[in-house]
Specification:
Layout lengths: L10 H15 L17 E3 L4 H11 L3 H18 L8 E8 L5 E12 L4 H67 L5 H36 L3 E3 L17 H21 L6 E12 L8 E9 L5 H69 L5 H35 L5
Parallel strand pairs: 1-4
Antiparallel strand pairs: 2-3, 3-5, 5-6
Subcellular location: Cell outer membrane
Protein name: TolC family protein
Keywords: Cell outer membrane, Coiled coil, Membrane, Transmembrane, Transmembrane beta strand
Amino acid sequence: MFFLNPFRRRIPRFLPAIVVFLATITPGFAESPHLVDHLDPIESVATLSLAKVVDLTLEKYPDASWLKSLEQEAAAIAQRGNSWTAGASQAGLRFQEATSGTLHYIDASVQVPLWNLGQRDAQQTVAKQAENSALSQADAVKLRVSGLVRAALWDMALANLNYEQAKTELAITDQLRAKVQRRVELGDLPRADFLLAQSESLQKRSVLTLAEAELMHARKRYSSITQMTKIPGTYEEKLVELTEIQQSHPLLVAINNQIERKQAELNAIKLVGSGQTNVAVGINSDRFTDDQRSNQTESFNIGIIVPFGGSAHLAPQVAAVNVELNKLLAEREQLSRDLEQAHHEAEHNLEINRAELGIANELQQVAEEHLKMTHLSFSVGEINLMDLLKIQSRTQQAVLNAKQRSVMLQRDIALYNQAVGVTP
């Protein structure tokens, strides 16, 4: 069942600014000179979609072979359920000869195991549930892969934002250092101010080096997960109109199908009873070879073999499947709790970041205006360099916070969609 999300109304307030900002950072993986030789290249491809990246990742994901084996298992179970016999038939041939060499006995027989009442239908039900479980497991794995790709992309976007901000701050600091150097050379400022500006520039260079390292790590995580070095040109998502965890959540569907399969297996094992009833059909030949007066007898026989008293031997199999069934029931209960918790956290984070984005944008405007006033005061000698650097650092942090909140809001939308079980 679908619900309208009451939190969606607040998105348009910040969406235009977010879209413009993300348009500048998402394709912003174009390479520029780096401080360290180690480089993990990433290429932004405008025609590549997020859904396509997930599909390509799923093809190379380690669970792909396991999913294929589940399909093969379901086909094998279906093949057995479609068989007219409950197992392999047996053919026998027995030859007996008297020590005198004058008498020969020959027996030939075929033994066929039959399905017990309702057992074949139960086996076909197991096959159907195995097929459903295999399909739902594929959907569950796709959701998990989507979560990995989403997290990797937005981690990389944040790392790239920090890197670009560090480059900007270094450029601003270098420009200030150059201005201070000129004023020191003119005698307007003491040399101590130049050393202070140079120290600030070196600190910013160190920050840039670390930010570059984090960006390379984020890129490597993405390429390790996806086995590719291309990212979508844009990967922002729309918030889905779901306000609670649905029973159609892929993880719930997967474990429910596992439970239904175990229940079908339990029923099929119980119908085995003491074993399979067998029908035996045969012929035998008794004849003398040397005495023409003897009778030459050919006979036909049919028999039924019915097992009994096997409940004690079947009980361990029933108990083993019952243990697995109850374990799955416990896992489903825990999964439901985990999904509710994840949904609550995703919804809460989304609401917090909406509010924080508004505050961060206002703080950025105030800080930038204050910085302009501070530059004017410094140029006329009303404040010293230390005060300017403090206010400049505070402004740069405000700018970074506003940009980060923009990215984090889009990331939280993707994580909310992930929490309610929606794939790209």
